[in-house]
Amino acid sequence: MAKVYNFSAGPAVLPHAVLAEAQSELLDWHGSGMSVMEMSHRGKEFMQIVHEAEQDLRSLLHIPNNYKVLFLQGGASLQFAMLPLNLLGDKKSVDIVDTGHWSKLAIKEARRYSAVNVVASSEDRHYLYVPAEDTWQRDPNAAYLHYTSNETIGGLQFPFTPSSLPGVPLVCDMSSDFLSREIDVTQFGLIYAGAQKNIGPSGLTVVIVREDLLGLAQPDTPTMLNYQVHADADSMYNTPGTYPIYIAGLVFKWLKEQGGVNAMAARNAEKAGLLYHAIDSSNGFYTCPVDPEFRSKMNIVFRLKDESLEETFLSEAKKNGLVQLKGHRALGGMRASIYNAMPIEGVKALVHFMQEFARQHS
Amino acid sequence: MAKVYNFSAGPAVLPHAVLAEAQSELLDWHGSGMSVMEMSHRGKEFMQIVHEAEQDLRSLLHIPNNYKVLFLQGGASLQFAMLPLNLLGDKKSVDIVDTGHWSKLAIKEARRYSAVNVVASSEDRHYLYVPAEDTWQRDPNAAYLHYTSNETIGGLQFPFTPSSLPGVPLVCDMSSDFLSREIDVTQFGLIYAGAQKNIGPSGLTVVIVREDLLGLAQPDTPTMLNYQVHADADSMYNTPGTYPIYIAGLVFKWLKEQGGVNAMAARNAEKAGLLYHAIDSSNGFYTCPVDPEFRSKMNIVFRLKDESLEETFLSEAKKNGLVQLKGHRALGGMRASIYNAMPIEGVKALVHFMQEFARQHS
């Protein structure tokens, strides 16, 4: 097959320049005679790789010195347990905003270890909006306030960073919009993100945690689920997933070359704008159900007015080199994930195809 | 640097043919137009990769149908918590054999969730032997009996598979000798292995578990630490580390081409034999402290009679393309890890270097 544009929600497209570099040095990293996959995680070569990855990430997000950066495994799903186990301390309850599939899973797992106060939910309208902050029923004694900045399945994104009450750290699952726009890390107690959308290959979870939140783990917390253990060991308590860290490091360097997070945010806005415009100007052939102000710039969900055309749409798209456009099985319809690494040419090709397809089937 | 022989204990050398194949298809797997790193874990391409990896592993080890194969994350260190959490059931205690660094960590973590009966320990003689099985103080009511078939740091390997009492499943940390010799899977309740020695890159843990041991997890077990959850979802409960699974699959195919596990065992015996012979015939210039019958065929530890020569040995070895020979910081001395992927030429080059070095410095 010729070049394709890959709209997978994750694992997802990676920058071509990053993959080309990985390919060129796969057998021999920087004259070491070894593949990165073959290097001891405690050797000086890999220590350099992980150090540079952390420094580049710190530079991209202006991460202050009182935050630790951890390179972990297990994805957001493991974080759902690690958060209450590590941050509950002597509090009794945690606050969670419910905006869709992933927040629901975060709530379900947190309930195994803590009371959960759902501060707000948009389930009443099928998660097509973010509840207005002034309606949230917050608990001033909550151990933390958790939200999911971008719901990958629903295509819903927070256009704002919530405020947090004094003494209630803000915790964010940023898996699917990490590094896609500027954030002020100091507003957060903890940020986490599975790598397989905007960071690199799967098998890596990045956690950014304010140091004063370490050391509060429940006594039964498995050692490998204790943030403090990983922080004390600079993510080398045991062997980390070294190759995903290496690729993430190449992505961070690529992002810096592209002008950093602000430059990506501008491109992401442009890409999402093109797609939503194509949907909204299709005279109802395509529709996006999400309320306009909360539409994700990462995962664009849309439906065809005539659902019986969906299979034809997907197979015709594939013939045009546009792949992985099927919506999540929980929701149906279509989804185009357009993370940082999706070039604008890919979005333009998709828009062109959608317009042609609508013309042919209207 | 020219070609090197990499004796790292893990992450470790991978077969050159595997890395070359990974390199050739890094940008485009089998005409899909995508890198494996970019594929949805639920797409048909990756499902094929993971299915073939499992089938090839089943074929290599003759894994019966009543055993599940799980591809997990977190390494052996996470298994140390998962084992008692999943297998204790309504029992009160677990049996563990203490043969060195890794069994000690397994004991320490298990004690967080269960009473631990150390059935035998070779700590009295610095873990230089495996205690004779007829001296083990077994508990017939133990939830399981755990041992570490190869102690990577100490260079100690079980030359036998322990027997287990009726109703007490045998559990083995096979991280550093998995696939290096034939085993009878039916003797085990559960086998686990971190990938970064004999399987592939780090970030993957293989678990082989008998189905009747599933479903016994303690109520507080984090969802991601529950074997049943991963078994029910065929290791796709959440996004696994896809690239390490792909590389492991290539390694399994390579092993089949090499003649399978028995062929590797013969080569491994030959390689280890060459090295131990070089040590034992050095008139004391090199010594291996481990009792001969328990010496590992994977990790050959040795010391120089004159410790002040160690740095010179390492730097001269590196000049000769022989790298990562430094022993674990907990033990000092030297360690040559010669997993399946280390070619016999690498061992011969090391033996030649050791003999020359001894001649020059005797």
UniProtKB/TrEMBL annotation, chains A, B:
PROSITE patterns cross-referenced by the UniProt entry: AA_TRANSFER_CLASS_5 (PS00595)
UniProt GO molecular function: O-phospho-L-serine:2-oxoglutarate aminotransferase activity
In-chain residues carrying the UniProt-annotated modification N6-(pyridoxal phosphate)lysine: 197
Cofactors named for this entry: pyridoxal 5'-phosphate
One Pfam family in the UniProt entry: Aminotran_5
Enzyme class, spelled out: transferase
Residues at which pyridoxal 5'-phosphate binds: 76-77, 102, 152, 173, 196, 238-239
Pathway(s) served: Cofactor biosynthesis; pyridoxine 5'-phosphate biosynthesis; pyridoxine 5'-phosphate from D-erythrose 4-phosphate: step 3/5; Amino-acid biosynthesis; L-serine biosynthesis; L-serine from 3-phospho-D-glycerate: step 2/3
Source species, domain of life: Bacteria
Keywords: Amino-acid biosynthesis, Aminotransferase, Cytoplasm, Pyridoxal phosphate, Pyridoxine biosynthesis, Serine biosynthesis, Transferase
Principal place of residence: cytoplasm
Membrane-spanning intervals of the chain: none
Its EC number(s): 2.6.1.52
Family in the record: Belongs to the class-V pyridoxal-phosphate-dependent aminotransferase family. SerC subfamily.
Record function comment: Catalyzes the reversible conversion of 3-phosphohydroxypyruvate to phosphoserine and of 3-hydroxy-2-oxo-4-phosphonooxybutanoate to phosphohydroxythreonine.
Name this protein carries in UniProt: Phosphoserine aminotransferase
